[in-house]
Amino acid sequence: MPEGICYLVGAGPGDPLLLTLKGRDCLCRAEVVIYDYLSNPALLQWAPAEAEKIYVGKKAGAHTLRQEEINALLVEKTSAGKIVTRLKGGDPFLFGRGGEEAEALVAAGCRFEIVPGITSAIGGPAYAGIPVTHRAHNTMLTIFTGHEDPTKSESSINYAALASAPGTKVMLMGVERLATITSGLHGAGMPETTPVALIRWATTGEQRTLTGTLGDIAEKAAAASFKAPAVAVFGEVVNLRGTLNWFETLPLFGKRIGVTRTRQQAGEMVQQLRALGADAFEMPTIRVEQAPDKRAFYEAVAYAHSYDWLIFTSPNGVDAFFKVFFEIYKDARDLGGVRIAAIGPATAARVSAFRFQVDVQPEKYVAEEIVTALQKETSIDNLKILLARAEGARDVLPKELSRLGAIVDEAVAYRTVPETEDASGGIRRYRETGADLVTFTSSSTAENFHALNLPPCEGVRFASIGPVTSKTMHDLGMPVNLEAAVHDIPGLVDAIVTFFKTEKK
Predict the structure, then answer these.
(1) Which of 15, 36, 319, 488 is catalytic?
(2) Model-level pTM?
(3) For residue 290, with 0-12 CB atoms within 10 Å meaning exposed, 13-18 middle and 19 or more buried, which class applies?
(4) Does residue 368 surpass a pLDDT of 80?
(5) Which residues constitute the domain of residue 351?
(6) Does residue 179 sit in the same domain as residue 134?
(7) CA spacing 20 to 30 A to 251: which of 195, 306, 317, 321?
(8) Mean pLDDT within 296-321
C-alpha cells in the first residue's frame, strides 16, 4: 500500500484566487479533500472529479464533526495511503487548530505538510481599504481571538495588555461577543474614540464593512444585524479606508450573479465578474458529453481533409473535433487544404489554440452571418462543407448553405445534457437566497434552467448573450432584462456592467 500524506492547506480568506499556488497543486493531486466552513466551495473546482470530498464545517452552534472526530478522519484517510488535502480557512496555524491536527497526524505516524495561507486578519482589512500597518500610524500589530469557551467562568482575554499595546489590533472570531469585548477594552483603558471596522465575508462579493468607534461599534453592529464570520480592526489605520477603499467601489460590487454555463466553462465568466466586484457563483445547468454516435463522428473527422470548408459554431465543437483529429492523425498537416470558418472570437481563439488559422469570422456572432461572410470570400455553389457542432443545433445554417448550392455534411461533435450535480452549491444557494441576476449563454442553459422549476426569486433579472438565446427565453416565458450587443462572454460582461450602472442613475 502506498504511503499516504496529508496536506494542511490554508485556503485563504475567501477569494478563491488568493489560494497559494502550492495550495492549488495540493488540491489538483488530492484523492480526498476535507474542507471546512470558511473554505470557499469554489476551491473544489481544482480537485479531481473523482476525489472524495468531505465537508467538516464548524460554526457557532453547528458542528458537522467535533475536532477530535476531524483529527481521527485525517488519520484514517492518510493511514489508508491516500493523498489528503485538508482545506482550512485563512492560515492553518493562526487560530485554525491546524497545530492540533498536525499533532494528531504525528502521533499516528502519518506524513504531513503545512501549506500556509493568507489570513483574513490581513487579507480582510486589505480588501476593505485598511492597511494593518502604516509607517505614519503604527509600528506594531496584535492579532487576538475573541472566541472563548462559553462554559468558562471568566474570560482569558488580557484586556489590559491589549489596551496598552501600541498599534493596530485585529480580532478574529468574536463578533457575537462584541459588546463584551469592546466594554472590556474600554474598561482597560482603550479610548472610546478608537476607530473600529468590522469586515464580514472579507475578500468575497458578499463582503460588508461597518465602521465606528470603540464606544459605538457594538450598538451599530446590533442595529445592522452584523453577523459572523467577521474580522474586527481597532486602530487609527481604520481612518485610511476613506482613501484606500478599492474593492467595494468596483462597478459590480455586491451584485449576486449566477452563471449557468457548464462547470468547465463557468469559471472564466465567474472570474471576470468577480474581478469587477460581483458576488458571482456557478450554477451550471448543462454539461457537455461526447458525440452520441462516436463512430460517425470519427469517420467525419477522418475525412475532414476532403472538404473545402470546415465550420465551427462553438468552442466545444472545436475541442471535440481536434481531440478526435489528433487521436487519428499525428501531424496537423493531415487536415489538408480545408479552410476554416468560426463563429465568434471565443470559437476562433480555440481554433488558434490548436495552431490553425481561421479564414473567415463573421462580424456578428450568429450562425446566419457565416453565410454572408462566406459569400464575400468565395462562391458557395458546389462547395463541400463540414459542420462540426452540437446535437440538436438549429437547422438554419445547413439549410441556407444547401439552398445556395453547397454540399453540406453535419458532424455531431457533442451534445449538451442537463447537469445533475450541484458540486459548487450554486443551485442550492439560488434556492435559499436568490440572486440579482442570472446569465444565459446559450439556448440549452435557458432550457435546462427552466426545467429545474426553481422557486420564484424576487427582484432577479435575466441576461442573455444574444438574440438566439433571447428567443428561446421568450418562448419559455422567461423575461430578458438585458441582451449583450456583442454576443460573447466579454460582451455579456460589458452589458451587465452597463445595466447596473444605468440602474444606479
Answers:
(1) 36
(2) 0.80
(3) middle
(4) no
(5) 289-417
(6) yes
(7) 195
(8) 93
